[in-house]
Amino acid sequence: MKNVAIIMGGYSSEYQISLTSGGVVYQYLDKTKYNPFKIHIFKEKWVYVNESNEEFPINKNDFSIEVDGQKITFDVVFNAIHGTPGEDGLMQAYFELLGIPQTSCDYYQSALTFNKRDLLSVLKPYGIKTATSFYLNLGDEINAEKIIETVGLPCFVKPNKSGSSFGISKVKTKNELLPAIENAYKEDNEIIIESFLDGVEVSVGVINYKGKVTVLPITEIVSENDFFDYEAKYLGKSQEITPARISEELNLKVETVAKRAYEVLKMKGFSRSEFIIVNNEPYMLEMNTIPGMTTESILPQQARAAGISLTELFDNAIELALAK
Fold first, then answer.
1. Alpha helices, H only, 9-164
2. Cβ proximity of 286 and 41 under 8 Å
3. 132 exposure class (CB count in 10 Å sphere: 0-12, 13-18, 19+)
4. Phi, psi of 261 (to 5 degrees)
5. Which of 21, 136, 266, 324 sits CB 3.0–4.6 Å from 293 for a disulfide?
């Protein structure tokens, strides 16, 4: 029996969603093959939480725990942390130094994809289209005219490094620009302002399944709100239609672009990329490397549509990590 540490929580606004994802992984993991442990990673404490909600501190020197006088180490880590430090490369680098395999991509890919500006810059030379954008760092002079001249209205103001749509605003008038920028700076000291792409939004899961890069059935996102924001994502304010209602030809085009991005970046593990299709061309918004794993999350929905159960999905991730 392999000891599996399921890490969850994290240091960002997404910690609550991560705890739910980690709980689902724990619930569906094949207990005949694996011995799973819920590990909560927070700024103030790293702890193993047992069934009775007792906490045992993690020894960060070798990522071990001591329970009833017995030292327990882990064969593999299942990473279910959205945001920092699980999705931006910090945990990946730590486990690499300790020589413990983990289920997500490597630290460089994590750091790169977590930084929306850098990710899109790296993919551009490979013919992957993106929205017109304008970058701001905290302390930069804000020239509203210049921003609007570059990206037009409406536009989106986003923190460069954050997930679950925290800190994102859709700006329709010049007066809304400054408050939106202030809102984004609450999440990150770097901002990306993007032109509004008016089209069909799709989410594309790409995974390595049994050693083969596999594009899962595409999900179409129809938000009741102005865009696919936190409410739309988690509070039922959107329709997620899998498979997406797009032509076979367009489906193939989106699949090809998503798979190319995964391969160009030498990705491992799970990824879920967001695209907006305008005039039959997919434009990439971002890539998530630790997508939500709740039963309602998009990637598990897509896996189900592909005939892959959550138990098979999680088992595959651990097998591939161990095979590294």
1. 15-28, 90-98, 107-114, 116-123, 144-151
2. no
3. middle
4. -60, -45
5. 21
DSSP letter for 102, please.
B
Angle at Cα 190 formed by Cα 184 and Cα 195, nearest 5°? 70
**Predicted model pTM:** 0.90
The pLDDT of 195-205, averaged and rounded, is: 95
Q: What is the pLDDT of residue 228?
A: 52
CB proximity list for 162: less than 8 A, separation 6 or greater: 12, 13, 14, 83, 187, 188
Tokens 């960002």 found at: 12
Question: For the chain, what's the residue count?
Answer: 324
Between CA 160 and CA 168 the distance in angstroms is 10
pLDDT digits (tens, 9 = 90+) for 147-172: 999 999 999 999 998 665 688 999 99
* CA gap 218, 235 in Å, rounded: 21
What's the gap between Cα 244 and its chain centre?
Answer: 20
Residue 233 bridge partners (DSSP): none
pLDDT in tens, 59-109: 999 999 999 999 999 999 999 999 999 999 999 999 999 999 999 999 999
pLDDT in tens, 269-282: 999 999 999 999 99
9-43: b or e for each residue (b if 16 or more CB lie within 10 Å)?
bbbbbbbebbbbbbbbbbebbeeeebebbbbbbee
Which one, of 50, 103, 94, lies nearest residue 72 by Cα? 50
Task: Answer whether 180's CB lies under 8 Å from 206's CB.
Answer: no
Q: How confident is the model at residue 296 (pLDDT cuts 50, 70, 90)?
A: confident
Run of H or E including 258: helix 248-264
d(CA 30, CA 36): 9
In the DSSP assignment, the letter for residue 306 is T
CA distance 19 to 35: 18
